């Protein structure tokens, strides 16, 4: 067999062959990644992505890679690179003829190393040169929320005060540490109860979710992962954050995967009251495993990896997190506006069911939806946080929120009544 | 055998005449404890076994006395005229008379081997000595007014763990004693000599205890190694694997606890480190006169200061490996023992500004093993300074916990951290015996476990020299039941244990399947050395055997072997003498 004189074929050549043959038939879908790609993916999952912190696209008119986004506070931003810049040269070598992947490859490197780029604005302008040091710009994965607005100007205020509210946007490598730091801040503010909002969390890393569950549970079984070889049971260690605080967790139909597993763990250990809508009723594409655990399996001497589901999430008592998917008819699909064609039963049933707006469209490649409060028809307050806050007030033995009107005739409900 | 050699040494010390003001010898000292008495600061040195005396007004070393083979602690008596020193290698408690500006050895008493700490009762009439490796507390009365002064042992108490940090509460009502390696906390009644309770904190390497002025709050500095985390860059970077803490406990919760979680009632856990500076190896904690707190961060050469235990702490740079703290009598300065620099750093209170550094004396160029020792205790070897080798291999031994490293080339099967005492003689290394050279294991640990920058060849050579020089664990004196031990030795021979655990190190070079399988399917393991095995529970690669007896009776080691209760008792009695 003749060896390719140009070295191993680029992934774009192999992929069709694999996809048609092998990967397409793996239950739950599989992807082929180079070792380099896996490393980048791990960096992103670990919230320690090293680079210039920009997003790229291809400007086919100018036949150049264009900088579509410059992340605020990142190395490129601080150097003065602008959105809309076309990259002409990288480290003295022209980008003529290179596609986005190849440009990305040349821009990436080790933390602390330098890269020099020459750019110009697409709409015209001088050629500018920048020497940038590759660095890290961690995302904030947990957002404290202080107030919720309704259409009529109603406001529901959460912290600072007795009850704090945290929107968890994703569960990445930094999330357990962010929660620890927030725990200290909230304790210092005098908080005594907490709402964790897990709505819309379709993507969460399993490993950091295990650590997060460990941080929230004082011993007890978190859950299980069933794989072909064995069942791994994850147990929380003694000690937890927010000890003795009543906890409420908000979920909706888009809370799936490890985030759903986390809600189940908190419910099964009677650690939190679950508020919202049945989880995991989201609709995926055929064969997608929404409660699947993926592993990057090394192949070809670890130069390539196949990322595929190798396990299923189960609750502590062995119940699967969700039933196998049920095909959905075309009429239902059209009516509900979904692009998937299967639905699951099971998931986590909330302790306090709140009618939430229906599940939104799931588009491929979109991580978590916008975290701004969902305006509810009729202008009432977003019901889920309201319900969660009321529940925690009961747990803290506080009187329920009594609406007050002020001079501007706005109904304001404030959670600042001290016992 | 050890005792015979000690006697002539003891005589020499009793008659030695310390020479204050004479030129200080060039030697390695390693200050590990500090105590003020009258207008002097006394520094106990572990390597030289000497006591350095500093005049805080002039910041000069005014004298140095050879007191023992290796000093671990020093404590003043309330009369201001006596000092107690703990001779760790000499297994003794030493009473010193401070008269006319001199320190003379007034009395010595042998205590349970490996003493590391002494706590004196407020009335100065009794004290308690913790012996780490022999797991014993010795209670001693001090008759200082007698002529000659006498130290009399009134009782000993066996503890179910290796004790180290200790604090007396309510005067001399109770002693709170912490584990040297893991997280156990014992409450002892020193007057009755009884053990009241033992519980566990989710912690390890408890290196400092401090009581608030009102006696109601106990501050503990320790580390946490999470069993569910991995030694991946992600977990190390975000402090999810190894973290460093200050824990605030309520004294009455500790004294009245009925369960482990009772200890944590009304307690608070604070992080000492953060991304960028992990604050590795908190080694000591002390309250100042205004309720402020100071924590020595041994791995990053800093002391963190704050207005109170709950306040944010700010770091101040000091010398290498600070492990002891003392506030001066006016409360205006904090003295820090820089153990591996042979200096004492001084920090101004309450400004928190570094004032000066006092050198204890000249010392020779460090040997490669000494340079290796500095690296072993340095958290700067790891990414962001979260941990040093010592964080898991406490003092060269083990903290007894499990860690999920790539030692077995995979994640998912956490393994017991092995002891490194005597490691030079127990190759090949790693649980699966895959590492042929100690240098390679050192490199691997620094790069893949500690996620540190690749160490230089010099650093690897130094660390390897240090490890190779670590002696195997001491065995202590004649056993309690000679007959059982003799029967146990016979069983060891007839059952051919030596095929895998061959003397003198009780290990072998091969990998064997003894009926154990780890979580990812590995079955062949390199047998660990059995030296010091009696004090290294739990056992097996994943710690599944809680006691030595369980190894045989519960887990039928090896390969489903049959053991009677009697056989197990005899064999374990023999193994405990190794």
Task: Write a short abstract of this structure.
By secondary structure, chain A is α+β, with helices and mostly antiparallel strands. Chain A has helices spanning 11-21, 35-45, 75-79, 100-107, 175-189, 206-216, 258-268, 330-336, 383-395, and strands at residues 31-34, 50-51, 54-59, 64-70, 85-90, 93-94, 114-121, 128-133, 135-136, 142-144, 147-149, 155-157, 163-168, 193-197, 221-227, 231-235, 247-251, 273-276, 283-284, 292-299, 304-314, 326-327, 342-343, 352-353, 404-405, 411-414.
Question: Can you tag this structure with a few keywords?
Answer:
heterodimer, A: 419 residues, alpha+beta, six-stranded mixed beta sheet, five-stranded antiparallel beta sheet, 26 strands, 22% helix, disordered C terminus, B: 578 residues, four-stranded antiparallel beta sheet, globular
Descriptive notes:
The complex is a heterodimer of chains A (419) and B (578). Chain A is an alpha+beta fold. Chain A has nine helices and 26 strands. Chain A has helices at residues 11-21, 35-45, 75-79, 100-107, 175-189, 206-216, 258-268, 330-336, 383-395, and strands at 31-34, 50-51, 54-59, 64-70, 85-90, 93-94, 114-121, 128-133, 135-136, 142-144, 147-149, 155-157, 163-168, 193-197, 221-227, 231-235, 247-251, 273-276, 283-284, 292-299, 304-314, 326-327, 342-343, 352-353, 404-405, 411-414. In chain A, β11 and β12 (155-157) form a beta hairpin. In chain A, α5 runs parallel beside α6 (206-216) and α6 (206-216) runs parallel beside α7. In chain B, 17% of the residues lie in helices and 33% in strands. Chain B has eleven helices and 32 strands. In chain B, the strands form nine sheets. Chain B has a four-stranded antiparallel beta sheet with strand order 1-2-3-4, with no helix packed on it. Chain B is globular. At the A-B interface, α5 and α6 of A face α2 and β20 of B.
